[in-house]
Design a protein that fits this description.
- The structure is a single chain.
- By secondary structure, the protein is of the alpha+beta class.
- The chain has nine helices and eleven strands.
- The strands form four sheets. The protein has a five-stranded antiparallel beta sheet with strand order 2-3-4-5-6. It has a two-stranded antiparallel sheet with strand order 1-7.
- It is globular.
């Protein structure tokens, strides 16, 4: 199976019309420079789903769902990343560029990346909904970190307490072991099978590849 060229992927989101792509799936209404609709990812009566064409992003102020055109198509159409790239390119009249020399990604690395994305989503949810978010949001405001910046850079919140992340994933023993290897959980000394969260009561800044 050929792999899609990395440079092509990096450029694609800037070449497509995010308004057109989303409007084919969810009817949008112009609101000033942006476009709005009722969010397709949660039930609501008042539109809180916003598409910002000059930044090529969407954001729902109700549920917090946000991202690029690729992110939207992946979630709305239930596609994996490669399928979403091909779909977005096809609908935009762009030919996909494949890299025939690319080597397959190690299965373990892919598993870690997928898990890290789930962890990131967990922390983002906590930043929006945790009862303890008050202190960290006040800190963010003092540092002039706006909601838009938080969305753009996927900021999250590790709530206070020793087992929030562990409790969220504890049903899957293999996932817990991966989280320990990734440094997000720490095994308790002398207590087999018990762990505590490494990060607690802090704003989380994920690191992405450039």
């Amino acid at each position: 199976m050929p792999f899609i060229d990395r440079d092509f992927i990096n450029d694609l989101s800037q070449r497509v019309d995010i308004v057109d792509l989303i409007n084919r799936r969810v009817p949008l209404k112009k609101a000033g420079k942006d476009y709005k609709a009722c969010c397709p990812f949660h039930n609501e009566k008042t539109p809180s789903f916003t598409v910002v064409p000059n930044k090529q992003i969407y954001h729902c102020f109700g549920c917090g769902e946000s991202g690029s055109a690729l992110d939207f198509v992946m979630k709305f159409d239930h596609l994996d990343f490669k399928e979403a790239v091909e779909t977005v390119a096809s609908e935009s009249g762009i030919s996909v560029v494949y890299d025939q020399k690319a080597k397959p990604v190690d299965a373990r690395i892919k598993r870690y990346r997928d898990l890290m994305q789930k962890v990131n989503e967990f922390y983002q949810y906590q930043l929006r909904h945790s009862p303890a978010k008050g202190k960290v949001t006040s800190y963010a405001k003092k540092r002039e970190i706006s909601g838009e910046i938080a969305v753009r850079f996927d900021l999250g919140f590790a709530p206070p307490g020793w087992s929030n992340l562990f409790d969220h994933f504890k049903q899957d023993e293999n996932t817990i072991q991966d989280l320990e290897k990734m440094g997000l959980l720490v095994a308790k000394k002398g207590k087999e099978g018990e762990y505590y969260d490494r990060f607690r009561d802090r704003l989380m800044f994920p690191i992405h590849n450039a």
